[in-house]
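for the record, two folds in this file. i put them one after another cuz i was lazy. first one right below, seq on top, structure tokens after. the second one comes after a little note so u can tell where it starts
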Amino acid sequence: MGVPVLAETSRIPFPQTPPPAPLKKPKVFLGQPRDIVPPACPGQFPGTPPVTDMDYGGIPLWINRLLGEPSVLSLQGRMDRAWFRASNPQTCPEQCDCPIQWETSLYCDHRALENIPEGLPQRTQYLFLQGNNISSLSYSALANITNLRWLIIDNNQLKSDKLELNSLQNQTQLRYFFANRNYLTSVPGGLPAGLKQLRLANNHISSISPGAFQNLQNLTLLLLQGNRLQTMTGDDVKGLVGLNLLDVSGNLFSAVPRHLPPSVQQLYLSNNSFSGLHEGSFEGFHNLKYLRLSHCGLQSEGIHPQAFNHSSLVELDLSYNKLTTIPRFPTTLQYLYLEANRIQEFNVTSFCREVGPLSYSRMKILRLDGNKLTYHQLPPDWVYCLRVLQRIYI
């Protein structure tokens, strides 16, 4: 059984009925943090590596070797192409490499190709086309192969008006379709029902084709960050009953989209411009565990006291906003990032409405660095509320 693709923090166990915890002094880090929990997506915090043309949408790709999935996504600079041809007697298009180690993989990436090579071998299951100049995708280009599982066509010139509606319909085995960093203006329709990952980050997408997701009940990961979406309705996402991770960061939303799939556990909304968060902004997200809201221009007066009242939340990122006070959070929250705001005071009631043997915050990591707040401003009773805190940055 394959390993699901989740952010690193998704491995954190979530206690349902934690026992009483003894008081334990947390590690306090003053000033610039050096040993921090990394963000789930590159580029969120200063010092993280810049997003490159090989980031595949910013979410790691986990390989299932038991299924024969290739552990190398590009052969560029690894070995002389002549070696591949000499060691593999099987047919291979002139513009591609066919390593004998992965006989069902076809590496045609970074060749300045303007079209998908002709005569693709029927054995092809993993097709790598990233880093070319391909502008169209037609049914005929892939007609010779019917067992395709991965199609990676990142960093090309792909355009919506040159993407045939039925180009992928016969690819019933297709599980991953990556088309990040192209020139698509809408989410394509006619995608195969077995698709598990759809990565369309950093395109020019401003709309979703009617019924584009209607048959994608198996989709677990959808990346749409870095596009031009302004709205997303219930009809737009109809059919996404198994979606786990949704990234719509860096779009043009002015409010949290309503009627998103309730199955979502990881929701990334950073780099949008939200006027505020009301009580029902995340209504219906009964499974939501990881929420990213950094760089959204949020202000304290625009956040309803019950906006984050979701006991399922494990991690919340509110960094790089304009908060002057700490909002209220559920006691079940374990990881909170509030760095680079304008917070001037620390209120224990933001984390604990009351303190007792079983009434305390389960917070483990708290970042407050980059605010107008010092360690000496913390009230003396904060350790009774945050009694299981492991690290605080201030």
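(here's the note) second protein begins now
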Amino acid sequence: FTEDGLRVMRAVRFAAVLEFELDPDTERGIVPALPSLAKVSKERISDELHKLLLTRQPSRGLAIAERTGIIALILPRLAAAFDAWGAARGGRSAVIAAWLSRVDAAAPEVRLGALLVELGDPGFDPHHRDALAFERVDTVLRALKFSNAESNAAAHLVSIARAIELVDLTAPQLRKLFSLIGREYAQQAIALWRAHSPAHPGVLAEAERILRERHPLSPKDLAVTGKDLIEGLAQPPGPGIGRILGILLSRVIEDPRLNTREQLLELAQRAELEGAR
């Protein structure tokens, strides 16, 4: 292990790939090799972590990584978060067990987010836990040299997972949230919620319904276009059209039944008149 520190992570990954337990002597040999792992480039470490998360049962490797100190070395903030959540929720071992179960249950495309949900530390201000979780996950993954896209996606998913713990979100609130993050992230968020076992299960069913029924979430989902508004309002192209489209989207997010050409043009005329005052 000491010749190439990455070998300890490969051993962990192979345990998951081949679905076996490491020999006790082999596992004990990981700890003295951790200083060698600390010298390995972040890119190589993140590559091994990514491969581990794509195995059928990542928990086999993650459990070893947590026991031997690999997680504490490569993801120190996550290890600290386990302690914080353990103090808040009945012990560290229960938090670890739930963490391992969640990562296994998560769809492969959201496992990076599932891995880091605990970074939404219980010590955070509840009213800002989602934003703080986003910042922390993004910082941790960028430090490990994950791509901007991977870091951003995982941070969005964790922040949303923490946000829904705070309140039973209504359908309009869910639509507004999905509108902010985009339909693709919304699909992934639902996959993570399912693995995360949210405190408000009704939210999951409502979120799935919103996406299944394709409720309008962006200007392109509206029954009218900018061109329709230009023609219908006899208004020239410009920021005013974008402003009206934003108003229409807000109304439709509140009530998707308004998303018809006739109703939206009527609402647009009112918005134009109000904007002119």
